[in-house]
Amino acid sequence: MSKKTLFNDFSEVSTKEWKQKIQVDLKGADYNNTLVWESPEGIKVKPFYNEDDLSGKTTNVATPDWKVGQAIFVHNEAAANKKAINALERGAEDLIFTIPNDEIKIHVLLKNIDLKHKTIYFFLQFLSSEYISKIEEFCKKQEVNIHYNVDIIGNLAITGNWYYNLEKDHEVLTQISKKAINTVGVNVSTYQNSGATMVQQLAFAVAHANEYLNYFKEDTIPNFTFKVSVSGNYFFEIAKLRALRLLWKTLTAEYNINADCTILAVPSKRNKTLYDYNVNMLRTTTECMAASMGGADTIYNLAYDAIYHKDNEFGERIARNQLLILKKESYLDVVTNPADGAYYIESLTHQLAEKALELFKSIEASGGFLSNLKNHSIQKKIKESAAKEQELFNTEKEVLVGTNKYINKADKIKEDLELYPFVKTNARKTLIEPIIEKRLAETLEQNRLKDE
Question: Whole-model pTM?
Answer without folding.
Answer: 0.95
